[in-house]
Design goal:
It is built from 13 helices and 9 strands. It has about 325 residues and is an alpha+beta fold. The protein has 2 domains: about 190 residues, Sandwich (Jelly Rolls); about 120 residues, Arc Repressor Mutant, subunit A (Orthogonal Bundle), CATH 1.10.10.60. The strands form 2 sheets. Strands 2, 4, 5, 6, 7, 8 and 9 form a 7-stranded antiparallel beta sheet that branches. It has a two-stranded parallel ribbon with strand order 1-3. The protein is globular, with a radius of gyration of 21 Å. The two termini are about 25 Å apart. The C terminus is likely disordered.
Length: about 325
Amino acid sequence: MEYDTDNILRISGCEFFSGPDFKLAVVGKNAGCRRCGWNDYTFIPHSHDFSEMVLVTQGEGIQNIDGVDFPLRQGDLFLLEGKTAHFFRKTSEFALLNLLFDRQTLDLPWERFQRCNGYNLFFMVEPRLRTPRTFCQRLHLPIAQQKTLEDMLLNLQTLLTEKKAENELLALARLIEIILLVSNLCEDRQSQDDDMLPRIGEAVALLEKNFTRNFSLEDLAQRACMSTRNFTRCFKRGTGMSPIAFLQAVRLRHAAGLLKNSSERISEIAFQCGFRDSNYFTKMFALYYGVSPMAYRKLGSQLPPGNKLERSATKS
């Protein structure tokens, strides 16, 4: 089915989420949710701002993503990021469970997840670098693992449906467990693959864990067994940033945390986060966050989530 890109249905997500400040939901035939009748978008080309993790729980189908068909079967698990146009073609009977979430509204340590190779591969790199060839290596779960994840998703759906004071925290805890399970499954799988995607995921984890070190492009490319040019191109497509810009973003995030939670001098914080020149640190921090380190420390929790560069990278 070819479709007019100007007429793709844009979904806000308000019918799935309980509110604008906590965007988390589980929908699908198996969850007994609202993917039926007038608001069933399964077979309609659509896009949205939030992320969507799709688990095929029964049967087979064809998912069209940005105009490309991808065959799917029971046990397949993959991620759709916002602004990606997608829909299922009507094929044999199948069932899905979808985890919908918006990172910006969920108070989780997302940057810590990036220390896990499997997280980087599944939640960051693969959706951006997806092609028919790479999608053939998507995560496929055996029955036992599928059942485990299915039960966790259904439990999360129950927590989100029941109106109890503590359920929002319990839902976040369950979401962390789901993310870690998927990340570990993906990491186990990537050890069997000799492909570009795992190598980019490993590079992201390396920079997250060793952000104070000075890496050259040549060193990173050599570790990934890729040419410098190809590594830089793939890394940018997979993360939205060049390797050096990504490393700088990691350093600045850590610096922001220290500014909020410690009384150390700005020059000391700069040094701890890998900057050898405090003036350069101040300049880059202001460019990244829109305020100086000193102003950031004073404003603290009054600052909005994210920053200029991260938001622009997310939209790319």
